[in-house]
From TrEMBL:
This is OmpA family lipoprotein. It is found in: Cell outer membrane. The keyword Zinc-finger does not apply. Coiled coil: none annotated. CDD domains: OmpA_C-like. Gene3D superfamilies: OmpA-like domain. It comes from Shigella dysenteriae. PANTHER family: LIPOPROTEIN YIAD-RELATED, STATOR ELEMENT OF FLAGELLAR MOTOR COMPLEX. Keywords: Cell outer membrane, Lipoprotein, Membrane, Signal. Residues 79-195 form the OmpA-like domain. Its main location: membrane. It holds the Pfam family OmpA. GO terms for cellular component: cell outer membrane.
Amino acid sequence: MKKRVYLIAAVVSGALAVSGCTTNPYTGEREAGKSAIGAGLDSLVGAALGGGVGYYMDVQEAKLRDKMRGTGVSVTRSGDNIILNMPNNVTFDSSSATLKPAGANTLTGVAMVLKEYPKTAVNVIGYTDSTGGHDLNMRLSQQRADSVASALITQGVDASRIRTQGLGPANPIASNSTAEGKAQNRRVEITLSPL
């Protein structure tokens, strides 16, 4: 990450040296133009801040991977977002929105990391398979997302950081034509994004 910031700084400095210079009409000396200096500083600040967010999320991801090891919860990265996929067999019984003990224990580990890294928004999304009525699945997926959010809040995560949504059978990650596929689609995803 630091190498990227240094590379950007070198490129910006080179660009300033080549294109941002003017000749002072009073002294005849070459000077860097003020707008070029401002643009260069803005670029450097942006690169440093972007690198800082990336590093913040990198460290948080590493801690989450460590906490989630052996729990059945997958941790993936998509840009600056971290996604925790909590399968139904870890979190809830079939047709239930009550957390299983294993799911509650897993969320304790998640909450520990979230409290350590308060500069992330927490989006909790519940999903179901395609079995049953649409309204029932939408309601159940919302209740599951709310249960996960409540567990995180009970563990001390600031409620203002958390948003919940139930999407029912939308966005399947496997085929709903097999029992195994349906089991994969019944899940809760927690997406962490930089604030």
